[in-house]
Amino acid sequence: MEATSEAPAPQKLTSKGQATRARILEHAAELIYTHGVHATNNEQLRRAAGISGSQLNHYFPTKESLVLAVIEWQAERVLTFHRSERFTHFDSLGSLRDWADHYIAYERSHQAGCSLGSLAAEIIKTDLDVRTELANAFQQWRNIFRDGLERMQRLGRLSAEADPTRLAHLLLSAFQGGMLLAQVAGDIAPLKDALQAAIDHVRTFAVSGEAGGLVPGRAG
Amino acid sequence: MEATSEAPAPQKLTSKGQATRARILEHAAELIYTHGVHATNNEQLRRAAGISGSQLNHYFPTKESLVLAVIEWQAERVLTFHRSERFTHFDSLGSLRDWADHYIAYERSHQAGCSLGSLAAEIIKTDLDVRTELANAFQQWRNIFRDGLERMQRLGRLSAEADPTRLAHLLLSAFQGGMLLAQVAGDIAPLKDALQAAIDHVRTFAVSGEAGGLVPGRAG
Fold first, then answer.
1. Which of residues B40, B61, B82 is at a domain's end?
2. Based on the domain organization, do A86 and A156 belong to the same domain?
3. What is the interface pTM, i.e. ipTM, of the complex?
4. Beta bridge partners of B14
5. What residues 147-166 of chain A have any CB closer than 8 A to a CB of chain B?
């Protein structure tokens, strides 16, 4: 790590520079997602992105600056996906099920896990100064679920007894833990079970006849 | 990795050799738990365990052989802990709560995460040939919860509607995911919420008046 060599701020780059930086990042994210941070080296990245060593060094002078940018890139993708219209801000049990179904059907779930979570787990114990970035990303992710559950309460779909923060932590933990267990087992079953059970639990707070037209929960 | 240099089988060592091997392992496990696999090198380990390079090389000729042994060591510890009398084979909701309380109060939970899970997450994408070992350990761990839930059903404490495998995957996923989120946040709250919500969900299947003398579940 060379603390003195700072990466240029993306917004100060020319549009051609921004495109090169984006191409490097895309390849770095893919290499890291597939092989992990430690097995990804400059030579692989240069070859994959079709750039020279001096270009790579210009945009990302240290591994830390590259890893930080990949975290931002993956966080942006995962948060944008969760905020997409498809999930209607998670205002129903149906949208939670749609979300779970997406990852259960995603073939890379049990091969490489969560793009952001597996990266976080790989580097959280290292000296890389990335904790603030990670904490911020996961907090925003958690808040998407929490806000959705609060919206369900306001819409009368979920009982006021439900604790949106606790349930949001259950959903995100079941997702992250299920992804790890699925990777280790080489089998999607642990993720599928964990997500279905976590959503079943949210459903126990469903108000009868509501919850996006699904069968009311056991408590309904 | 030198595939030809195999580590001596522990049972073929003299008792002094077994003691040295155990001391190396204990220090390796601690270093890896604190700093991660990649930041742990031979020199740190030699110094911590007070051994020479040739001794280390004798017991663990490759990093792979060392990491494999640390996985076995951590798995043995975690499985033994979960099988201890304290948790009475997880035959009640009370024992699940006791288990959760233990990890919520454990100060290293949000510092270094799960001793086995954080190691698995760090190396699952590497070329180290450790997947079978990890899969086996996590399957046994999952089975401890599943068997406990089945026992609760036989004892009439849990409804026959409950799916023990699904609930076991929820408990272990909430634990692993909650540990990761707690580490990232530097705060135990995500783990606490995830475990409490997962156990709340098990409780919705509790048969009224049973379940270890606790208040019956919402469905009871």
1. B61
2. yes
3. 0.92
4. none
5. 163, 165-166
Q: Does A167 touch chain B (CB under 8 A)?
A: yes
Q: Which residue type sits at B21?
A: R
Q: Looking at residue B163, which CATH number applies to its domain?
A: 1.10.357.10
B220 falls within a domain? no
- Chain A interface, best mutation among B71, B181, B195, by max A CB count within 10 A: B181
Note whether B196 and B122 are same-domain residues: yes
CATH code (residue A22): 1.10.10.60
Please indicate whether, in this complex, the C-beta atoms of A184 and B112 are within 8 angstroms of each other.
no
Query: Distance from B213 to chain A by nearest Cα, in Å?
Result: 21
Please answer whether residues B107 and A107 qualify as being in contact, where contact means their C-beta atoms are separated by less than 8 angstroms.
Answer: no
Read off the pLDDT of residues A106-165 as tens digits, 9 standing for 90 and up: 989 999 999 999 999 999 999 899 999 999 999 999 999 999 999 999 999 999 999 999
> B28: domain range?
14-61
Do A147 and A196 sit in the same domain of this protein? yes
Residue B52 lies in a domain: yes
Percent of chain A with pLDDT over 90: 87
What's the number of domains chain A is made of? 2
Of A36, A173, A218, the CB nearest to B177: A173
Interface size, chain A vs chain B, as Cβ–Cβ contacts under 8 Å: 184
* pLDDT in the model for residue A211: 45
Nearest to B122 among A121, A181, A193 (CB): A121
User: What would the pLDDT profile of A34-43 be if each residue is shown by its tens digit?
Assistant: 999 999 999 9
Q: What is the pLDDT of residues B142-151, one digit of tens each?
A: 999 999 999 9
